[in-house]
Amino acid sequence: MKKIIQIARLELSLLFYSPIAWLLMIVLFVQMSVGFTSVLPQLEKGKSFLFLTGELFTNPNSIGILAKILTSLYLYIPLITMGIISRESSSGSIKLLYSSPVKLSQVVYGKFAAMLAYNLVIIGVMSLFVLAGATFIPYFDYPHILVALFAAFLLLSAYSAIGIFVSSLTTYQAVAAISTFVVLAFMNYIGTVGQGIDFVRDLMYSLSMPSRAGRLMAGLLNTRDVIYYFAIIGMFLAFTITKLELERVSKPVLQQVLRYMFIVLIGLSITYISSRQPMIGYYDATETKENTITKTSQEILKKMGDEPIEVTEYINGMEGSYWGSTPSQRIEDIARWEPYLRFKPNIKLKWVYYNDTVPGMGAILAESKKTFEELVIHMAKLQKLNLRKFLRPEEIRKQINLNGENGRLVMQLKYKGKTTFLRTFPPPDKGFWPQEDVKDAALKRLIQAVPKIVFATDGYQCGIDKLGDREYRTLANEKLISSSMINQGFDIDSVSLEHGEIPAGISALVIGDPKVAFSAAAKAKLEKYIDDGGNLIIAGEPGKQSIVNPLLEPLGVKMLDGTVVQRSRDYSFDLVTPVLAAGSVAMAPGLQPFFQQKAVVSMPGAGALSYENSGPFIVHPLLITDEQTSWIKMGKFTVDSAALTVDAKAGDRQGSFPTALMLTRQVKNKEQRIVVTSDADFFSNGELERGNMGTINSYFAMKIFSWFTYGEFPVEVSRRRPKDNTTTLTKSSVRMIQVLYYGVIPGALFLIGTVLLIRRKRK
């Protein structure tokens, strides 16, 4: 060890007495300064971020100065390592090493130790930006950044080991530098080669280095990637030692090849074993554990026990979603499941490619005057697809029934013989792939009873399959929207109270805007359902009090005559925007922040509700209007003809009125839950997609149905808000940092390097 340290000290002194080492440090610092200081004025002006530590340093899709510098670190190492061995060969001093009592392995380890020390200096330079960020970001996420810096150090060290080996292959330093550039560039971009071929893709990914550093940079420290870098370092140092030893002792070519192959075999075996899912250890360094699925998700996987889950992707080559999961994207696809594989390694992933018709294809076939088979061949030629890897329509239909899935990429989850679909989503949804809440809902459906919401169809009520503004498809039954109830774990169905029976065991019955009175038989079925403790939502509309009130009578609730109107500068009088009442927080604690912010729910045409405190139910308002701007307007009126005023003589009454109520009581050892609203449009397609007002209609409606399932669905996966979302920057502090990082620090590095070089030259 003493000799290794001595060699390292000598090599390090030579390194820092060369202008290249100092020049590269200054260039690196200036490169990072440009990206760092340019965003400071934006932060000072109040531009807010979530996870500001990550956004500023480790997110490559945002500012991410540490993440982005990873892609260019390979440019710095070759100029440092180019002479580390080749210098000895060109000067002839390598012969002295061969005859000296120093082992060649000690020489290599000493030179590598010197590179580790230089890499630490590079990390120190990068840390200057971290220190600056820590001064103006309250609640700075230190563990995350420490792991990110460790990732950069591992990458630099692996590059150094490769550079040392390449330097041992030639006596010319320039050739060593160029060759190292080529090798490191190859290791950087090899992960993009042959991604459409299974074996080649896996092999190339195992050799790709920056992608692994990127995962560490995100704050997820794991044994697989750390061991991988150690294995790469060990392999190339072993290559270097072998190369030097074989120069000193003549060996047959076959024996030399076998020795190199043995090193490769050991290295690949270590990386393969350490990459097996059960062998991987994880530490999420982020403050809010962003790289880890929530406790809720972990509990779902825990309940599934040791039984395997089979996830099969069905990808239609004739639909645009095919390009979200081509064979070349298999690695990214697996990575999306890794947070779940971390807690349940026996999730089996499969991919099935097929060709089949999609909605609207009939018009395409008619226009192109081609048969479906001819169109498939034509598209395959254009897109260079191998049709032998795609099942034909009749073949895929024998395997699975995908009717109703619009031909899109869909996943089928299978567990203990039960199956469910997990869908992908087109724009403008929040993402193509299902997020954690949608995944959890699908998994949870496999291990427990699925909640069923049934919509009544009598009286020309709003439907769950229509796209009109006043219908309920967006909320309930839209497969192409991730927030729709069908993708949040619910089963959706409809029933005619006039001609059918209310299904047993449902989570809730929805009566949405009945336009004609129920018959005595239908009303009797509803009353029996209520008496038996069934959950229910009745949504009425003003002007239809005579139809709705007979349904509300057993509940002790009544919709008052007239229509609630609201004075507004921008909107018509019949658009009412009640705020959350205290009862909404009792129903769903997750609404607490919105209650405090006085968030509104839009109701285009609402009535006022009254209730009896002495009735059979405990009643609490969920939504309530503003007493200063709202009143009950009696009789007919036209909202766009003239400004409406309160007409007390006509019976108008100003005040604060409830427009939604929650009712509860104990029936058969269960809490019965009922919601009554005086507007049936607040969870309609039109209101959920309203873009001219900030409302919480979708979230509020989903919380109502969550209440009906006693919190089981949708699955709650929210995380606490990160603390590092503000800065203390001022104009003067921004200017000071810019002066320091544009001039003072680079100037100091230049001055120190110059002084050392001059002193060295004088000696």
UniProtKB/TrEMBL annotation:
Keywords: Membrane, Transmembrane, Transmembrane helix. The keyword Transmembrane applies. The chain crosses the membrane at residues 20-43, 63-85, 116-139, 145-167, 174-197, 226-246, 258-275, 739-758. GO terms for molecular function: ABC-type transporter activity. One of its GO terms (cellular component) is plasma membrane. It comes from the Bacteria. Residues 481-703 form the ABC-type uncharacterised transport system domain. This is ABC-2 type transport system permease protein.
